[in-house]
Amino acid sequence: METLDRAPEDARDAVKRDDRNNTGSEIEFSNPVKFLSIVSFSELPETPVLNAPIGTTTISVLNTEKVKLQNTGAVTLTDFTNGQEGQTLHILGDGNTTATHGTKIKTNTAANKLLATNAVYTFTRIGSTWIEDAGSGSTYSAGTGLVLTGTTFSNPYVGKHITLFTGPITVTISAGNSVHIGATGRYALRADTTNMSNVRLSASIDGSGASGNHTLNVYYSTDAGGSWTLITIGATATNAGAQLVTSTAALPSGAKGSAIWFCPAVTSTSTTGSTILYTFSLEFTP
Hints:
This protein is mainly β. The protein has one helix at 11-17, and strands spanning 2-4, 27-29, 49-51, 58-60, 66-68, 75-77, 79-81, 88-92, 97-99, 105-106, 113-114, 120-126, 129-132, 147-148, 161-172, 189-191, 198-206, 214-221, 229-237, 242-250, 260-268, 274-285. Strand 12 (120-126) and strand 13 (129-132) form a beta hairpin. The N and C termini lie far apart (71 Å).
């Protein structure tokens, strides 16, 4: 590799004045280079992906932006070492590595987090801590079988009673005990719950197409869907045909505010079949 030792003020002209650049040789500047206008590249700069060592609890990320985890068994990750201030990491999960929430790493759920397969998580180093992006990943597990399909419904609303959707919405079941929110249709609504204490769920559902029962709950989000937290309400629907189910639970303190988003959660004990949701409503009371 050839090195051109030039002063910073001459760096702009270095490539112009050096014919060796035309041969494809690499040019290295010993001093910082400042670009005085927009820079474009004919090819994207190379950003290699680091294959993290298997079994390690700390990963060196010196001059690294992208990391691929590849553990085949459970591993607890405690730190990314050799990082620098403002450095951003994109981490591809493997389904076996758990990021420890503590002084070195802070997840957006404030708890230890299993980094799922085929999901990318973003962390930025601030001070001596790696902080996860607020919208990186989510706090609920999407599952594999139960899918709410249809157009997105989101409506800023201030009040005590809200309807998340009026169906019919077909719920297709392909695996037991599964929940799926969002991928093919998220139903969410924003509400002002500042002085509310309880939440009542009511839903009209035809469960006759399923072989087992359903449990209806609700998720809430304080960051416009970046992450979700479950409120266990436990409204049960059977597979006996059309029915109205209701249930009430205390509203968690974290779900109180002027811009809280709510999204339905449906869990089924069935392994096959389908069912229909006609309505899904929430009522908040002081």
